[in-house]
Amino acid sequence: MTDGGFVGSVVDELEGILAASQVDMTETALRRYAVDQAPVLDFQLPLAVVFPETVADVQAVVRACAGSGVAVVARGAGTGVSGGAHATRNCVVMSLERMDRILDINPDDETAVVEPGVVNAVLNEAAAVHGLMYAPDPASFRSSTIGGNVATNAGGLRCAKYGVTRDSVLALDVVLADGSLIHTGHQTFKGVAGYDLTGLFVGSEGTLGIVVGVTVRLKYLPREVHTVAAFYPDFRLAAAGVLAVGRARVQPAIMELLDGGTLAQLDGIHGSDLTTRGRSLLLVQTDGFGAAAEAEVVREVLRTGGAVVTTEASAEAERLVELRRHSRGVEVDDEYRVGEDVAVPRSRLVDYVAALESMAAEHDVHLKVVAHAGDGNLHPTFWIDRTGSAVDSGAMDRLNRVLDESITAALAMGGTITGEHGVGQYKLRWLGQEQPEPVRELQRRIKDLFDPQGILNPGKAI
């Protein structure tokens, strides 16, 4: 994309545009900002890391890079797990973490306007003062940014009732590949004028434009929350409990499913005794003025289905929800341990987990599964044993085979390769199985329209 002269000139130009504290080319910074939390397929160091503090800074950086044909990889907190923020060859990484102001909260309109670097939890703390909340809550909500949530259309535990990020975004301010600034969407909850460009940018992983402002819809902070923990002797009965709650026509805010492997890992990390109480755990949380009544219906339905259910005191169940938020463990995904993000129709949860267990046993690969069961989004994690940095090639082959088979099985059941983490760089190898070539070609043409030079997060998402 570039030659050495262009590369050197764009770095010099960036140093002239931004303050010295906004450009970092130290080895430590380059390595830190080169990757997110996904497995790394092709490690590349960026030319520089820049830290814009205003929209004008972002525009200036993009114009400089466009003039030299240098790629720009925008990132938030780097909590993504699909490689969407991995550096590419001869790129500039743009960290938006310093653009972290909440510009407005309007309690009457139930909206907020924020910069992309605002942390999800910080927005929620500010909204709570007004009896409101920002509904999307990925497990990384204490560190992930709103801009990153928008880029991946992040989900979270409350998706079953409140939807994903796209359902809460009303408008965006976006810097395009030529440095120009556009505003999409509206301040109102309704609005159908023209094509939905706001919806197009949400989930585009920084490949169409760089989000520099987000207008979000806020929801009412529930006055009452009830959490039910139901322990089952096996996963099949727990998954049946998910469907039973749906048939009772109760809409939980949270419905999370943990298998025996996950419970064992939590016990090892936190010193809990979950595995002595069951081989699978279903967590259901109801909220709002009808939370108590809905929770009682849930308890009765789950008891009937063979669960050992917590009593009306939900303190322990709420603690279990917090454990669930950290159930991926302390490890970060790498080439030896991969957490997946597939979704299947809820009615196929049991079938899919049975298929995963069979694959793991056949290929001698470890497996644990957690699921946002309310919307059929599963996070199976596969891993292989290693001693230090050594692992035999046969084990790596087995791990990759089980990953491929898990994707194929999900698609065969009417599922998708990614429910909320995004395609990024890591899942590109499977995208063709889900989307036929005419659809992929249309997406490439959209990319070409917005980014004719191909400088915005190249090699990701499509």
TrEMBL record:
Keyword line: FAD, Flavoprotein, Oxidoreductase
Organism: Pseudarthrobacter phenanthrenivorans (strain DSM 18606 / JCM 16027 / LMG 23796 / Sphe3) (Arthrobacter phenanthrenivorans)
Protein origin, superkingdom: Bacteria
Residue span, FAD-binding PCMH-type domain: 42-221
UniProt key word Ribonucleoprotein: no
GO molecular function annotations of the record: FAD binding; oxidoreductase activity
Gene3D superfamilies referenced in this protein's UniProt entry, alphabetically: 3.30.465.10, 3.30.70.2740, Vanillyl-alcohol Oxidase, Chain A, domain 4
Protein name as annotated: Glycolate oxidase, subunit GlcD
Cofactor: FAD
